Amino acid sequence: MLIEIWSDVVCPWCFVGKRRLERALAGFEHADQVEVRWRSFQLDPSAPQHGHELTTPVLARKYGRTEDEMRDMQQQLVDLAAAEGLAFRLFETLHTRTVDAHRLLHLALDQGGTDLQGRLKEALLSAYFEQAADVGDHAVLRGVADSVGLDASRVEQVLAGEEYADGVAEDVDAAVDLGIGGVPFFVVDRRYAVSGAQPTEVFERMLATAWAESHPAVEVLGGAGETCGVDGTC
User: Domain spanning 2-214: which superfamily?
Assistant: First the structure.
């Protein structure tokens, strides 16, 4: 079973949603047969390469709020994240570009599959939200990539050029085709979807429904007939 998640590394709800999905997977008996793949989505492709402005005033302008109102909203999210075991530093995060972080996520998928990609995604989210690091800064990205074991020379090659930019664009185009207008957005086997950081129970239902669809029970017709058993008796 494949779960594709469209997400940005500067999306707080994506981190919360990740934790809730992980909790659902922890209780899912077929979790070892579930693959999670992260897809690219940029909340603000026009953001500066290196963040210099805090996100609070940027968001206040975007949503027509005062900075005090936006800080109140952010505090509610900080408190909610804490309930999920996340220590958000939302008042210190910077408005920054994320395309290079997404390109490294594509590199991680190529280099180590979904396991390595998942570890890099976690590290990038933690760097931004729990360490208030600028994930548009190549020095920060090198450090995060190194912490999960990406090949340093390949990381340098990717950051020095535009490698995987096409892959990022393809993910964004796929999001448009699927009608995705916000993230996180979870798609299972391209048949079932969950939009947003829903409660864990919603993800549990998503997993159960998708599994039942892909592994239907066999209907036995005609009742029980004569058989031979696995112990050799007939």
Answer: Glutaredoxin (3.40.30.10)
